[in-house]
Amino acid sequence: MDTPHVEFSELTNTKIQDFIKHGWDKLPVCMAKTPLSLSDDPTLKGRPENFVTHSTDISVSAGAGFVICLYWQCAHSARTSKSTSSE
User: How confident is the prediction along the chain (87 residues), in pLDDT tens digits per residue?
Assistant: First the structure.
């Protein structure tokens, strides 16, 4: 069985280098992804094998002490939604 792995976007790779400079690479990582699958693909239900996850962005919550690695567009769109509760 092949081991699942992560492919990082250009943006994520750039930010990782900055995080290393600040020492944030030592922080625990929270994966923001679809709840439907261990992967970032909602069509691969449950615990699929031999998959690749695609990190689209990464951010740090320095006060909370962890890094947030965003996968798939659901995590990203929830974070950047333009709608508000007042609409």
Answer: 455 688 889 999 999 999 999 999 999 998 877 777 777 777 878 777 888 888 889 999 988 999 998 886 544 444 444 444 444
CA distance 24 to 14: 14
- Helix (H) or strand (E) run with residue 31 in it: strand 29-32
Q: How many whole angstroms separate alpha carbon 87 and alpha carbon 31? A: 30
In sequence order, the 6+-apart residues with CB closer than 8 A to the CB of 78 are none
Report strand pairing: 52-61 vs 5-8: parallel
pTM: 0.65
